[in-house]
Amino acid sequence: MSVIVYSKPNCIQCIATKRVLDAQGTDYKNIDLSADKNALETVIQLGYREAPVVVVEDKHWSGFRPDLIKQLCAN
Q1: Which of 39, 49, 50, 52 is most buried, taking the most CB atoms under 10 A from its CB?
Q2: What is the CATH number of domain 3-74?
Q3: Are 42 and 33 in contact (CB under 8 A)?
């Protein structure tokens, strides 16, 4: 399962998302939106304008969503 977290530095929701993923033992790739313009375009094309954006294969969401992270870790 491929998990990508698009985040920004000093973003409270981004930090919380990565902290929960780490605590659950989920491997993920973190991409800094402030350093990667292509990643920012990808997030905009998905319809999001705020970080974090989590992409899990064909599913995605924005913001700190512990409910969805828990479902992800249960699979």
Answers
A1: 52
A2: 3.40.30.10
A3: no
- Which residue ranges make up each domain of the chain? 3-74
Cα dihedral 65, 8, 39, 4 in deg (nearest 10):
-40
* pLDDT for res 71: 86
Coil vs helix vs strand at 5: strand
In what order do the strands lie in the sheet containing 53-56? 29-32, 3-7, 53-56, 59-62
User: With a cut of 50, which residues of the chain have pLDDT below it?
Assistant: none
pLDDT at 40: 94
Say if CB 28 and CB 52 are below 8 A apart: no
d(CA 34, CA 70): 27
Alpha-helical runs (H) found in the chain: 12-24, 37-45, 66-74
